[in-house]
Predict the structure.
Amino acid sequence: MQYIDPSLIKEIEHWRSPALDMDMPIVSYGHAGHPLLLFPTAAADFLENERFFLVKAVEPFIQQGRLRVFSIESINRWSWMDQNLPVPEKGRRQALYTRYIENEVVPYIRDKVGDPGIRIATTGASFGAFHAANTLFRRPDLFGATIAMSGFYDLGPDYLGGFGDGNTYFNNPASYLPNLDGPYLDLLRHDTKIVIATGQGAYEAPHASRNLAAILEAKQIPHWLDVWGYDVNHDWPWWRKMLPYYVEKLGW
């Protein structure tokens, strides 16, 4: 089975991450266009989005040189989804993951696209939407847009168990966004594209997207909350419809 067109430029590289002390692979698709950092769902790997044809869904944009996609590994199975790990350690590992993204992945992508100052877009579905949104909101100087699909944006109810420290606070949008100010807030208000998409069907959590939108509204941060119908389930066929739709709308 061919997950992508054989003619599509695809490159896999990896390095030992100084932040994580792990071998972290990254795959890129395309030769030109706006860089889009793609996160996998749940505990999946860097090729999951290809195997489930999400890369295929935006292949026309990639082939036309409008979009260049980069997909990275998740460490959720060694952090939030490891039931035997204490919450403070989960938060510490999440903080290392964001350090890896900001200090290693961003320079790599900027070098690949030949623009040392470009603000990268992010996207992902489910747990990937959490990472896509958190990555943008933490560092809007590095990231300029997000398409968050069927996500949640508050670790508190399901993952923190009442615990809180600096690692969890600064990696939980529901915690730090209400208190955000200064130049990062200005960037989010005036020069950032934010799409929050959700269905209302099986296993979706539209309240999570609405809660995030309410926080953004209170901070006067422009965003597009797009709530799809009750037939739209928490599943790949819908994310394959959503992503190219929003890529087109955002004008890449």
About this structure: The domain at 10-250 is CATH 3.40.50.1820 (Rossmann fold). The mean pLDDT is 98.
